[in-house]
Amino acid sequence: MGEKFPTPTLLIVIFFILSRLISTIGYSLRDDPESIRLASSDYGHILRENPAAVLYPTSIDEISSLIKFSNLISTPFSIAARGHGHSTMGQAMAPNGVVVDMMSLKNHHPSHASGIIVNTFNLSVNNNNYYADVGGGQLWIDVLHATLEHGLAPVAWTDYLYLTVGGTLSNAGISGSAFRFGPQISNVYEMDVVTGQGDFVTCSPQNNSDLFFGVLGGLGQFGIITRARIALEPAPKRVRWVRMLYNDFSAYARDQERLISVNGRKQSNALDYLEGSLLINQGSPNNWRSSFFPQSTYSRIISLVTKHGIIYSLEVAKYYDQHTETTVDKELELLLKGLSFLPGFVFEKDVAYVEFLNRVKSGEEKLQSQGQWDVPHPWLNLFVPKSRISDFDAGVLKGIVLKRNITTAPVLLYPMNRTKWDDRMSAVVPEEEVFYTVGFLHSSGFDEWEALEEQNKEILKFCAGVGIEIKQYLPYYKTQQGWMNHFGSKWNTFQKRKALFDPKKILSPGQRIFNK
Q1: Does the annotation count 275 as an active-site position?
Q2: DSSP strand pairing (98-101 vs 79-82)
Q3: Is 109 marked active-site?
Q4: Is 128 in contact with 258 (CB distance < 8 Å)?
Q5: In sequence order, which ranges of 105-192 are alpha helices (DSSP H)?
Q6: What is the largest CA-CA distance in the chain?
Q7: I want to staple 30 with a disulfide (CB 3.0 to 4.6 A). Which of 35, 84, 315, 483 is the partner?
Q8: Rounded CA Rg of the chain
Q9: pTM exceeds 0.85, yes or no
Q10: For 207-235, b where at least 16 C-beta lie within 10 A, e where not — what string?
Q11: Residue of 45, 62, 84, 86 with catalytic role
């Protein structure tokens, strides 16, 4: 940071002075053991960093005042916004600083609409457009239910809905809909942001655009999102959901790339969702992310995995309602015609729209009941250029992963279109038109995560050694050089935005971008 961090003792003194100074306007700044414990860990359960205090704000003004106070003192304390705590390597922590619990604002409805308000407006080209003003501390599952009351739903999703709006927009927000609708950050019209200087700013592509594009995918470095205006569309009622299995990676990749080439937002013959995943090791073909395969098929699928080592699963979905229920099967049939999946290994479901979007929740509840949710999660999420995905399959999946034989968690692998991303935003993706997201969603015992972390390091080392120019999603680097390499040509802009919006480097120290 260029200045020494204050000691925890000094921060506690600052905390008590601050809380007394501003107690008249309702601050809830705590340093009790339970508040500190909850804010010192995250979903990863690998790192633990104690803040000096936790702010449970009752208004946006309280967040702004806290940041301004830190700016005023000679040695500023760090501040980190925390949503649902789903980061995996301490990204939302503030060692010896203050963590802001954004979910405390869930039920707060100020004039700038931290609650959910659904509106319609007319664009100059006379197309109807729908949006929702949503608080940064709102969970996407709550956004879904609130917008459905109006017959609408967000355009872009993450696979897991119990994440905050501000949290996913600070990264990107991806899922199987991204090939067609882009990440969640590509579906935002406007935001309210409290900057690293404590200023409350409304920004959009037209107004305060540098802040707007910086914050989206900006890893919390420039400001705290308190409101986002997100794109909506008429909500479908049901989902035709299909999975197909492959034993040949080339065919698997070729079919995925063909399917995502039909990707116009208004193309009725396009898929609404496409994801791929791996079946490896022996055991149940289903996992905590999805229980799709009928139990009667387990033995056949397990035999395939035993024979080939890796089986590739392609998962697609088509949404429909009462107006399209007579055509959905024909459209799906035409899309899947000529694909090279294994005969006899096509599985189909028809489910309600909400059940499909919230499909991961049942897996979470099962793991929680077994005491396997709050455990270490040494995840590794990568974007891999299309031109090197076969090399990645051969060297990483069939090489490192199969040889180590310790991966039992879900592994995702599916392509996206770069044109659906806005290069003005802070998020970083490979330069090629098509790239793949690969996610190793590991879970482990508290004494076992280091072996999986070593595998992650071996994967990164392999990619660097053979020149596969990957980009990390939900990135984690220990050095500024690592971050410079990550941002590449965007690094200078990223630095300038930091100097402009958070010059004292107060926000999001857990990312370890500008502080040691």
Answers
A1: yes
A2: parallel
A3: no
A4: no
A5: 140-148, 165-169, 178-181
A6: 71
A7: 35
A8: 23
A9: yes
A10: ebeebbbbbbbbbbbbbbbbbbbbbbbeb
A11: 86
**Which uninterrupted H or E stretch holds 188?**
strand 188-195
**What DSSP letter does each residue of 468-479 carry, written as one string?**
---EEES---SS
Amino acid identity for residue 106 in this structure: K
d(CA 187, CA 401): 35
Kindly report the backbone phi and psi dihedral angles of residue 83, in degrees, each rounded to the nearest multiple of 5, phi listed first.
-95, -110
Q: Mind giving me the DSSP string for 83-117?
A: SS---SSSTT--TTSEEEEGGGGTT---TT--S-E
Which residue in 275, 315, 393, 502 is the catalytic one? Answer: 275
Q: DSSP assignment, residue 1?
A: -
In 281-407, the DSSP E strands lie at: 310-320, 346-352, 380-385
Exactly one of 159, 192, 393, 502 is catalytic; name it: 159
Phi, psi of 8 (to 5 degrees): -55, -35
Sheet holding 98-101, edge to edge: 29-30, 53-55, 98-101, 79-82
Per-residue pLDDT of 160-217, as tens digits, reads 999 999 999 999 999 999 999 999 999 999 999 999 999 999 999 999 999 999 999 9
Is 86 an active-site residue?
yes
Q: By the 8 A CB rule, do 29 and 101 touch?
A: no
Interatomic CA distance for residues 445 and 448, integer angstroms: 5
CA distance 149 to 85: 28
